[in-house]
Specification:
Blueprint: H1 2-27, H2 39-61, H3 63-86, H4 91-103, H5 107-128, H6 131-151, H7 154-165, E1 170-173, E2 180-183, H8 184-200, H9 203-223, H10 231-245
Antiparallel strand pairs: 1-2
Length: about 250
Amino acid sequence: MRTLVFFFFYTTSAFLAYLFSGKFFEEGFFAFENPSDVSNSFYYFLLILAFTALIIFLIKLSKLFVKLIFYLLIFLTIYFVLTPFIGFFALIPSLVLTLILAVKKNPIFVNFVALFVSAGVIAIFGISLEPLPAIILLAILAIYDYVSVYKTGHMVKLAESLSEMELPLLFIVPGKERNSYMGVGDVVIPNVLFISSAYYSSLIQAIFTLAFSSAALILLLKKVDKPTPGLPYLNSAAILGFLISSLLPLSG
């Protein structure tokens, strides 16, 4: 059950991102000015490090303040995702969804918002990074995820704190004894290469990228039943799928 639900969230986020990305690309809705610049990967990684350090510091002072920060970020993300489609009117659903999220702690609704936010972020960063910068970013974050879980352990503690807040930063599958969680980052990061491949390489490479990372997700969920860094497996599989597909005569 857990495997099937997380697989659904993972692949649906990717397909929704593909649907969103066309409008974003058409409107020039890019996160970076030059998608081919590899320095974008390092810039984005430094932002992640700085933001993570800030949240770890703030969460010790006030969980309420951290909640407010994330609600603001969720509101802005929903707004920016909807703006290319409905313009200024995006303000209304963004505000409504964020308010409901703050009041109603329902796993189904949390998953719905997480799915929408994931798809939007995947689409924006997917069209903002060509495959080479995307691969570099995936490789860096795979290493970082491994270190932050197995060496420093700070990501496990952070995930536990955030799960208590019931924010849409984790996909939730309720269980009889305990809930299962999958980080939004585990869905977003490998699928950035999926969208990047679709726009800057070929649809075949995009399909291989998604297929390999999805297979890795299934294997990971089947074999692991404890907090595990997902990106080393998912990112490696996505990169492998991209590289293998690049050898095919129909790719490129």
